[in-house]
Amino acid sequence: MDNILNFLRLEESDHLLLFWLKEILVAVVIFTLFWGLSQVVRYILTSWVPRLTAFTRTGLDDRIIQRVTPPASLLVVFAGLYFAVRSLPLPEKAHVVLSGAVYILNIIVVTVIVERVIAELLEWYGAKLAERHGAGVDRQIIPPLEKIVTIFLVGIALMVTLRHFDYDIVSVLTALGVGSLAIGMAAKDTLANMISGFTLMVDRPFRIGDRIQLTSGQWGDVNDIGLRTTKIKTVDNTLLVIPNSELCNTTLINLAYPDTRAKGRINVGVGYESDVEKVKGIMIQTALDVPEVLPNPAPEAFFVSFGDSALGMSLFFWVEDYTRLFAVTDRINEQIINRFREHGITIPYPTRTVFLEKEN
């Protein structure tokens, strides 16, 4: 009897061993098929797809394919590992743990693929911004965007993972919403400045190096555009720090846009006995004799007003660089006063005649 029981136990163990060998073999076959499929995917992405993207005028698609090929093939391998684990007749808890771990790996790989695609798109967009608005713009805009995208993708991956394990993501979202509201109320000014800084970087009303003038009369060169403040270096070599929210809600003048040319104006009064046409000619020729004054648009002189003691004249001229406007104005003023003296043209000053009546 004992021999019969031992024989039955041995036969049962052999059947169990054969059963597990068969199940493991099926899992290995599934994983092998997916591994082969990953090699096919890699071959297609490295050999055939570049032939198609070669017909496009941009290299963006080539860079995207090059960056997503390794994680895409790895994703197929992890997918095969997931189905291989699911095919094994393991206990329920073992299934949950193993398949859950492989599922998390798949989510991570998918997140990496999406992040790499978006990173290439942002890099391409940054290069376009640099071509349009000058070098350095991409280094200001793209890094904050990349951080925001990364946080967004990680949040989505976390919610998908929690949803897979039947966690209540509504309560998580509610807690995050309440926390975000509390943080937003506590730091609303800082957030307003950060959002305004991002708006300034995207809208580009001015660039680093541009000379701007505020409604308050202050003006200077933009030294830095940050997420919270903008720094302006004034002409007297002081640093003006302005919150971005104020710059977004005020009117300002960009002296460097659409180009660096600037228009200067000189007002001068001449005596009533002066020949107006002669005065105009002298002023225009004086401006043209200064090398930094542009011949096109040509300088212009106008008779603009009748003053109490002088005829009001105005000279308009253009310079190539707005930073040289004051220096050029100084040189023209010096030449004008010398030319007026040479031609006998007076620059009168206000006079007042007082009549005294003698009482009888």
TrEMBL record:
<feature type="domain" description="Mechanosensitive ion channel transmembrane helices 2/3">
    <location>
        <begin position="147"/>
        <end position="188"/>
    </location>
</feature>
<dbReference type="Pfam" id="PF00924">
    <property type="entry name" value="MS_channel_2nd"/>
</dbReference>
<keyword id="KW-0472">Membrane</keyword>
<dbReference type="InterPro" id="IPR006685">
    <property type="entry name" value="MscS_channel_2nd"/>
</dbReference>
<dbReference type="GO" id="GO:0005886">
    <property type="term" value="C:plasma membrane"/>
</dbReference>
<comment type="similarity">
    <text>Belongs to the MscS (TC 1.A.23) family.</text>
</comment>
<feature type="transmembrane region" description="Helical">
    <location>
        <begin position="65"/>
        <end position="85"/>
    </location>
</feature>
<feature type="transmembrane region" description="Helical">
    <location>
        <begin position="97"/>
        <end position="118"/>
    </location>
</feature>
<dbReference type="InterPro" id="IPR049278">
    <property type="entry name" value="MS_channel_C"/>
</dbReference>
<keyword id="KW-1133">Transmembrane helix</keyword>
<keyword id="KW-1003">Cell membrane</keyword>
<dbReference type="Pfam" id="PF21082">
    <property type="entry name" value="MS_channel_3rd"/>
</dbReference>
<dbReference type="GO" id="GO:0008381">
    <property type="term" value="F:mechanosensitive monoatomic ion channel activity"/>
</dbReference>
<dbReference type="InterPro" id="IPR010920">
    <property type="entry name" value="LSM_dom_sf"/>
</dbReference>
<dbReference type="InterPro" id="IPR049142">
    <property type="entry name" value="MS_channel_1st"/>
</dbReference>
<dbReference type="InterPro" id="IPR011066">
    <property type="entry name" value="MscS_channel_C_sf"/>
</dbReference>
<dbReference type="InterPro" id="IPR011014">
    <property type="entry name" value="MscS_channel_TM-2"/>
</dbReference>
<dbReference type="Pfam" id="PF21088">
    <property type="entry name" value="MS_channel_1st"/>
</dbReference>
<keyword id="KW-0812">Transmembrane</keyword>
<feature type="domain" description="Mechanosensitive ion channel MscS">
    <location>
        <begin position="189"/>
        <end position="256"/>
    </location>
</feature>
<feature type="transmembrane region" description="Helical">
    <location>
        <begin position="24"/>
        <end position="45"/>
    </location>
</feature>
<protein>
    <submittedName>
        <fullName>Small-conductance mechanosensitive ion channel</fullName>
    </submittedName>
</protein>
<feature type="transmembrane region" description="Helical">
    <location>
        <begin position="169"/>
        <end position="187"/>
    </location>
</feature>
<feature type="domain" description="Mechanosensitive ion channel MscS C-terminal">
    <location>
        <begin position="266"/>
        <end position="347"/>
    </location>
</feature>
<dbReference type="InterPro" id="IPR023408">
    <property type="entry name" value="MscS_beta-dom_sf"/>
</dbReference>
